[in-house]
Every structure is written in C-alpha cells, then in structure tokens.
TrEMBL record:
It is a multi-pass membrane protein. This is Probable membrane transporter protein. It is found in: Cell membrane; Membrane. InterPro entries: TM_pro_TauE-like, TSUP/Inactive_protease-like. It comes from Lentibacillus kimchii.
Length: 93
C-alpha cells in the first residue's frame, strides 16, 4: 500500500482529512484545505531536489498550473454551494 500511495502521489492525505473532520472536529472545507497545504509542503521538497538535477518539464508545469487555477476556481464555487454536509458525504476525498 505504501509503495502504491507514493507512486500515485496520495501519501497519507486519504487518512488525514477524515481524522481532521471526525476526531479533531475541523469543518470539512478547512480539513481539505489543510491536507492540500500539507501536500504542497511535501511535494515542494521533490520539486527543489529535481530543480538541482535540471529534470523539470516546464511545459508540463505550465499546463498543470493552468488546470489547477481553473479547477480551484470552479471547485471553490462548487464547495460554497454544497456546504460542509455534502463535502463530508463525498466518497471521493
């Protein structure tokens, strides 16, 4: 399981969100944002290390950034409409 989760880049985030919501009583939107922030911290180490090896595909980063910006705007609007109840019920954390 650990090898597959590292390969797909999910790490322990699949467990972090339910723990924050049900044990620490975080609102769902705050728990999701916290897990995304922790993912950003973890992945930044890999980016910095690959930068020194000059193995970064800048076009992939550009297209990924465009998709992230569009997806985050749409996701924010959708999350505001749905509320915390539906975010907790969503099986695809």
């Amino acid at each position: 399981m650990g090898i597959l989760s590292n390969y797909f880049g999910i790490g322990g985030v699949w467990l972090l969100v339910p723990i924050l919501i049900y044990i620490f009583k975080f609102p769902a939107h705050l728990a999701i944002a916290t897990s995304i922030f922790s993912l950003c911290l973890y992945s930044s180490y890999g980016v910095v290390s690959q930068f020194f090896y000059d193995k970064i595909d800048w076009m992939a980063i550009l297209w990924g950034a465009i998709g992230i910006i569009i997806g985050s705007k749409l996701g924010m609007k959708l999350a505001q409409r749905m509320g915390d109840y539906y975010a907790k019920c969503c099986p695809f954390y």
